[in-house]
Design goal:
- The structure is a single chain.
- The protein is an alpha+beta fold and about 500 residues long.
- The strands form three sheets. Strands 2-1-5-4-3 form a five-stranded antiparallel sheet, with helices on both faces. Strands 8-7-6-10-9 form a five-stranded antiparallel sheet. The chain has a five-stranded mixed sheet with strand order 11-12-13-15-14, covered by helices on one side.
- Strand 4 and strand 5 form a beta hairpin.
- Helix 10 runs parallel beside helix 11.
- It is elongated.
- About 0% of the residues have low confidence.
């Protein structure tokens, strides 16, 4: 097969390779084959203009380990990086730019090199040394390697596009997995470990850590590690102003930012000699950290809600139940009917605490219609009333708005049951750009001017209006004696 046919075959082979790491090795191997070189290498430039990766052919793993750290771009390698044009050198050691070879490096004499340009910038440089047969590289070798470099440039651009698509998919998968785990009730520790693992995989790092300030705010404690040295790093502490892992080369550190500011750091790192992270890696990890922080903030809020629910159940609810039982017993023993009011108040408090317990154990993003139906049905069941629900499914508002609207609806239903003696009560909810909640009863009705607003106004009605106004919502009360009552809240 002549050289032209080899170049055509090489172009087809490179175009079919989508993995960037495999493609780079393939470029070196084809360059060695086409020019009949003994050794070949491809140096990939990092964002700092130095060599970030160095892929070789013709050198064994044992020889690479004996040589030590890969080159950074000095000497003859630096000459090609600086001039960005093809070069041929018959005797490397005699060239003015030569700085010699490190210990245990194979002896090399002749060199042929050319840059690989992608999107108008030098992506890297292709180096070939020592043509078989002892002859130097020819003009034909140089022409062939320039053609191969042009083919490699196109293939690298395609591989970059494929890699970007794959990374976006991995980003989406990572965010989705974290959100799913948190919604399923994963603990804070489990959530942090998952975030660290997905971050490490996303940028191809050797390790990833998540560090959170301790109670003093002067130390960072590593609470999650994935990858190299995980066991020895977990639980380690570092000064906030001097956080640095030992034994690592390239690293990225981004903040984890919640609603109240930064609460920790996410770090991805490669060990010494590993790949240098580029700007794309930094941007990818930053956006991932933003989403992970939101999910983690949700997880911490859920844990805090569960803690409050436990305290409410073990404290307030238990005390209210005790008060209700004791007051009821005293009323029976003494015949004092005034104690009935204490029993009723304690039971109302107990019912409300149970409603709060139910709300606290539900997800923060539970739809309004679901939570509203549960709360209103509890009020209706407690008072033995008939309440018709007409709720649009899937209506979502923020947690605070959801709780306020539920309280208003329950207050309106409770008021109707206790004061209006209705035959029917209807709760209606519609959503969209505007959320509209209405509670209508066919009870005895009243004159709103007599109770709202002004001194001596009914606490329940005043409370409903103030709650609605706290959301910036419109509150409307329409009632007439013997004509029923309608309460409406419009949000949005």
């Amino acid at each position: 097969m002549d050289r032209r046919d080899k170049l055509i075959e090489a172009g087809v082979a490179l175009a079919s390779e989508l993995s960037l790491s495999a493609l780079l090795q393939r470029i070196v191997d084809l360059a060695v084959e086409i020019t009949e070189a003994r050794y070949g290498a491809l140096g990939v430039l990092g964002p700092d203009g130095r060599l970030a990766e160095f892929i070789t052919a013709g050198i064994t793993e044992e020889e690479r380990e004996a040589i030590g750290d890969p080159p950074v771009g000095r000497g003859i390698l630096g000459l090609l990086m600086k001039e960005a044009r093809p070069i041929r050198i018959s005797d490397i050691s005699a060239h003015p730019s030569s700085v010699g070879f490190p210990k245990h490096h194979p002896r090399m004499t002749s060199l042929l090199g050319t840059p690989i340009v992608s999107h108008g910038n030098v992506f890297g440089d292709l180096y070939l040394t020592d043509k078989h047969g002892g002859t130097g590289f020819t003009t034909q070798d140089e022409e062939a390697i320039v053609v191969l470099a042009a083919q490699a440039s196109v293939a690298i651009e395609n591989a970059h596009l494929y890699e970007e698509t794959r990374r976006r998919e991995a980003w989406l998968d990572g965010v989705r997995e974290i959100a799913t785990a948190i919604l399923a009730g994963a603990s804070t520790d489990e959530s942090l470990r998952l975030i660290a693992r997905r971050a490490r995989e996303l940028v191809g790092a050797d390790l990833a850590t998540i560090a959170i300030p301790d109670v003093t705010g002067t130390q960072l404690m590593i609470l999650a590690v994935d990858g190299a040295h995980a066991e020895e790093l977990y639980g380690s502490t570092f000064p906030v102003d001097g956080f640095q892992l030992s034994g690592v080369g390239s690293e990225i550190v981004v903040p984890l930012v919640g609603k109240e500011g930064a609460f920790g750091t996410l770090q991805a790192a490669n060990l010494h000699g590993g790949r240098t992270f580029g700007p794309d890696d930094v941007r990818l990890l930053e956006t991932f950290a933003d989403q992970a922080a939101l999910a983690f903030g949700y997880s911490r809020a859920q844990e805090e809600r569960r803690r409050i629910a436990r305290d409410l159940h073990d404290g307030v609810a238990q005390e209210l139940a005790f008060v209700a039982r004791r007051a009821r017993r005293m009323a029976l023993e003494t015949g004092d009917r005034g104690l009935d009011q204490i029993v009723a108040a304690a039971e109302r408090g107990l019912t409300e605490s149970r409603r709060q317990l139910a709300a606290l154990t539900q997800p923060l993003d539970e739809p309004l219609d679901t939570a509203l139906a549960r709360a209103v049905e509890e009020v209706a069941a407690r008072d033995g009333a008939n309440v018709e629900l007409d709720l649009m499914p899937g209506v979502r508002v923020g947690y605070e708005a959801r709780e306020v609207l539920i309280r208003i609806a329950c207050e309106a239903v409770s008021n109707a049951i206790r004061h209006a003696h209705p035959r029917a009560i209807r709760v209606r909810l519609t959503g969209g750009d505007t959320v509209r909640l209405t509670v209508v009863d066919d009870g005895v009705g009243f004159d709103p001017a007599s109770v709202l607003p002004g001194p001596g106004s009914g606490f329940g009605l005043t409370s409903m209006r103030e709650r609605a106004e706290s959301l910036g919502a419109k509150f409307r009360l329409d009632s007439r004696p013997r004509a029923g009552t309608e309460v409406e809240v419009v949000l949005g």
